[in-house]
Amino acid sequence: MQKFSTLKSIPAYLPIVNIDTDMIIPKQFLKTIKRTGLGKNLFFEMRYDDKGKEINDFVLNKTPFNKSKILIAGKNFGCGSSREHAPWALLDFGITCVISSSFADIFHNNCFKNGILPIILNDDIIKELSEYANRKEEIFVDLNEEKVIYGNNEVRFKVDPFKKKCLLEGLDDIALSLNKFKKIESFEKDLKSQKPWIFND
Amino acid sequence: MPNTLYDKIWNDHLVDQQTDGTALLFVDRHLVHEVTSPQAFEGLRNSNRKVRHPKLTLAVADHNVPTTDRSKGISDKESKIQVDTLEANCKEFGIKLFGMGDKRQGIVHIIGPEQGFTQPGTVIVCGDSHTATHGAFGSLAFGIGTSEVEHVLATQTLVQKKAKNFRINVEGKLPLGVTSKDVILQIIGKIGTAGGTGCVIEYAGDLIRSLSVEQRMTICNMTIEGGARAGLIAPDEKIFKYLEGKPMSPKGKNWENALEYWKNLKSDDGAKFDKEVNLKAEEILPMITWGTSPQDVITIDGKIPNPQNEKNEDKKNSLERALNYMGLKPNMAAKDIKIDKVFIGSCTNGRIEDLREAAKILKDKKIASHVHAMVVPGSGLVKEQAEQEGLDKIFVNSGFEWREPGCSMCLAMNADKLKPEERCASTSNRNFEGRQGRGGRTHLVSPGMAAAAAISGSLDDVRKYQN
Questions:
Q1: Domain map of chain A by residue range?
Q2: What is the ipTM score, two decimals?
Q3: Which chain B residues are closer than 8 Å to A201 by Cβ?
Q4: Of A42, B99, B160, B426, most Cβ neighbours within 10 A?
Q5: Is residue B360 within a helix (H) or strand (E), and if so which, with residue range?
Q6: Which CATH class is domain A6-170?
Q7: Is B427:B346 a contact under the CB 8 Å cutoff?
Q8: Mean pLDDT per segment of 10 residues, for chain B of length 467 residues?
């Protein structure tokens, strides 16, 4: 997994609440058997018209937001389906940080597995940050320090320590869990004697 | 200390607990489908890893499969590749698969219970948000992403943090014509689509206990639409009776031991819940969604909301956006909404009791001439059972199409989809923009309400057709 430490970008602002994963990447693009190549279909229905032409006033079609690495959006971002294609599409487009006042749980988890940092900030701060998008000014995200720096201001955010470590170091958490194989084996041994029906034995 | 049902299942599956709260949880049952698994299997291959417990894993193709004649296979090239890839992966890694020609094939959340793969007190995961369905059996069941699917395949565990305990109590009796679908729509309307974020919901109260196993599944299924990843109900005699004799249920001595364990699966008196909500069943009416979020609910007697009455600017904008997408006017009566299509099916309402409920309304009636309607049974076994009961004939005689099992128009990944601006009364779970097809307009309803809408040609009150 790609590491995340700091990020500087003009943020793109999408002032819509409850952006669901169907909006982020519609189902016709879930037929892929790869993780890559989804960026061009990110927010497909808002981004392209019926004939497949770019809709000019959609934020991610406008310069400089078509190069934004940070997306600011309304609350409950990523609700709905568990599709990891949603973070894959964001990542493939180049967005590695999403800022919202709340995230749906599965999407939030999926971000961390793909080197994307979801940041939760309150609505007032989000309003302030959205001004930077409007003025096309850069903001700076520092994961290690857990802060966003904008102009002469800064705001702290919180991130789970384990998830932070995985992002900073780009760790493969399967390898980490497999390191605990002795604990897994011992759990399974107990399970087999206490609840043998689980293994259909 | 008294524990909740969720606490108990959690504690029983802890492989490792770190000081920062991160835990490694054992997974007893892993369901796999074609859309969210190919990249996970590829990851295993790339790192030279195996599936740790193929026998605790069950696979089926459901999202992409055609619901019309299957003798010619899948004509959509990409869908075919995905379904073929699942088949190849299951063969390579030794996982049991119900293929397209198998009568046990169906929607992953319908076949798990049907086979007895779903069991009380287990941790069940699947790369699908509606995994919450299995919570009806008193299991901790939740949807995961593809990276997590790979993690479970490789380790039979999952890295998790404990969620909060949220209890929703529904007491009393439901009025005639009101179903568990109306109950869950009412709940989502009340708590909102982020109301359960970070929580596991336990549904309790005498109304919940009075529901059948399948009605409970409808409630747990849509827990994710309320933002909670898992919803569960303490298992009881109805659950045990349902599971007894199912192909993958415990047998003999194992059954007796399992039963003894299952009977203790309930929240202790005095267990602490971080959040509680109470509802009276008598006050719940047949519901519809009018907008583009499952929280946009009104009763069938209600009117479309007016954004002018909304003071909060964000909420006003979001109401306007939804009304615009749905092609509706403020203050319009729900019953004046004319529909083009009806879809009965999905992991929410594609089981035999759902089909019986709709068929009861449709018997000896014809659907409106401008309506195109279809029934997609949730599995091959549901289809077979319905045909034995003659329900297929009731549907076909009324003007419905009778299809092969799968996810179908719930998410429109196969050929079944709405055209732009087409309006559908649907028994599925999501009314998001574009969910059932680009520009398509979805109204979520119960199976009985879907049948009533098909007859009337507009959203209508199922109670009108009740005898």
A1: 6-170, 172-201
A2: 0.95
A3: 254
A4: B426
A5: helix B352-362
A6: alpha beta
A7: yes
A8: 97 95 96 98 96 98 93 92 97 97 96 98 98 98 98 98 98 97 98 97 98 98 97 98 98 97 98 98 98 98 96 91 97 98 98 98 98 98 98 98 96 93 98 96 98 98 90
